[in-house]
Amino acid sequence: MSEIEIAVIGGSGLYQMDGLEDLEEISLTTPFGIPSDKILVGSLYETRLAFLPRHGRGHLLTPSEVPYAANIYALKQLGVRYIISVSACGSLREHLEPGHIIIPDQLVDFTKGNRQRTFFGRGLVAHIGVSSPFSPEFSKALTEAVRSENGVVHEGGSFITIEGPRFSTKGESNLFRQWGMSIVGMTTSPEAFLAAEAEIAYACMAHVTDYDVWHDTEEPVTVEMVTKIMSANTELAQRVIKRLVSTRKDWSGNFSAHYGLKEALALIGDWGAINDEVKRDLKPIIGKYLCD
Predict the structure, then answer these.
(1) How many Cα atoms sit within 13 Å of 256 on the Cβ side?
(2) Residues 136-166: pLDDT tens digits?
(3) 28-62 residue pLDDT tens
(4) What class is the 4-289 domain?
(5) Domain extent listing, the chain
(6) Which residues are tagged catalytic?
């Protein structure tokens, strides 16, 4: 049986799929707090797969309350190397219609500072490069999986993350359009950036649920809209996950994301000067670079 190398972060209904066997729940604690929920691990095509409900089962956490650092750290502890993020989003472009899937390649963080954005600090500094915030290789594989399952998929686009939990004003929505954004959501930042620091290849399957509030002839976004589309797309998301896992040998490998910290930590000349507690807390993330 393989290690737990693939994880899905999204709604709790995603793991209720045919073929998922040998289920177990894993409770973890991290130096960054407790994850959103217990992590469900199961076997699919002889591959161990982890599922983490981003907002907790029952959707108990607002986007700002999600413990992003704890979630990514916990998955890193399990050995995860690839994360599929399943997210709802609002469309900022006419051709990106509700029901479509976007695999974005760029990310803009418009949150307000209420979320933990990095694992580093306390005397250990890392300036990671995120010119490609989503893994290009893994995003390509995810796009092909959606296409193979007959989903309407758009490859590329800029995903802007707002703080929430409220939706945008019309003025904000039109501003995002002027900036060239494609879709808007509430959870991809700092999740993607923390995954980068943890050297996990991260790709996002963004489900368009609405036209946000900018559209002149469509109704402004509501919770009912989001829930309706995401419920309808759950079965598609499950098929895509199955496809991706079943074709793992065709796409898996060492991606650029798996070495993202190499240059970020290059300025450290004296590992001995770094607090032992910090080194211990971050060992799952920086262990291969530690110089005793």
Answers:
(1) 13
(2) 999 999 999 999 999 999 999 999 999 999 9
(3) 999 999 999 999 999 999 899 999 999 999 889 99
(4) alpha beta
(5) 4-289
(6) 210, 212
